[in-house]
């Protein structure tokens, strides 16, 4: 369902992009703004900049509400496919840190 990325309404701003790391702020101005369907090609960490919830639409059609806490990061491995949607009545954002250079075995 999400092999081809789609354009969402959330605003992405890349702060750092080099051979090893990409750091992007994702900003959701209003409820319902979304990242668009995408599949993560790299391991990544998300650092929420707000207290609230994001709705995660999985490639199997599942919908999950994920609680976010300002400054509390979480890690995901490559291959995750989803659309991330703001479930908040206020502007919210998170910072996504992707590890472009994977660990060597």
Helix-strand blueprint:
Layout: E1 11-17, E2 21-28, E3 38-39, E4 44-48, E5 52-58, E6 63-68, E7 74-76, E8 81-86, E9 92-99
Antiparallel strand pairs: 1-2, 2-9, 3-8, 4-7, 4-9, 5-6, 5-8
List keywords for this structure.
105 residues, mainly beta, Jelly Rolls, five-stranded antiparallel β-sheet, four-stranded antiparallel β-sheet, globular, Beta-alanine degradation protein BauB, RmlC_Cupin_sf, RmlC-like_jellyroll
What is the compact description of this entry?
The chain is an all-beta fold and 105 residues long. The protein has strands at 11-17, 21-28, 38-39, 44-48, 52-58, 63-68, 74-76, 81-86, 92-99.
Describe the structure.
It is a single chain. The chain has a single domain, classed as Jelly Rolls (Sandwich). It has strands at residues 11-17, 21-28, 38-39, 44-48, 52-58, 63-68, 74-76, 81-86, 92-99. It has a five-stranded antiparallel β-sheet, with no helix packed on it. A four-stranded antiparallel β-sheet has the order 3-8-5-6, with no helix packed on it. Helices cover 0% and strands 50% of the residues. The model has no long low-confidence stretch (mean pLDDT 93). By secondary structure, the protein is mainly β. It has no helices and nine strands.
């Amino acid at each position: 369902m999400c092999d081809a990325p789609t354009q969402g309404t959330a605003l992405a701003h890349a702060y750092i992009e080099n051979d090893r790391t990409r750091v992007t702020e994702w900003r959701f101005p209003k409820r319902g703004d979304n990242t668009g369907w995408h599949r993560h090609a790299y391991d990544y960490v998300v650092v929420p900049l707000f207290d609230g919830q994001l709705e995660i639409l999985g490639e199997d059609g599942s919908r999950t509400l994920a609680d976010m806490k300002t400054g509390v990061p979480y890690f995901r491995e490559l291959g995750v496919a989803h659309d991330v949607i703001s479930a908040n009545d206020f502007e919210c954002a998170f910072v996504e840190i992707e590890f472009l250079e994977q660990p060597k075995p």
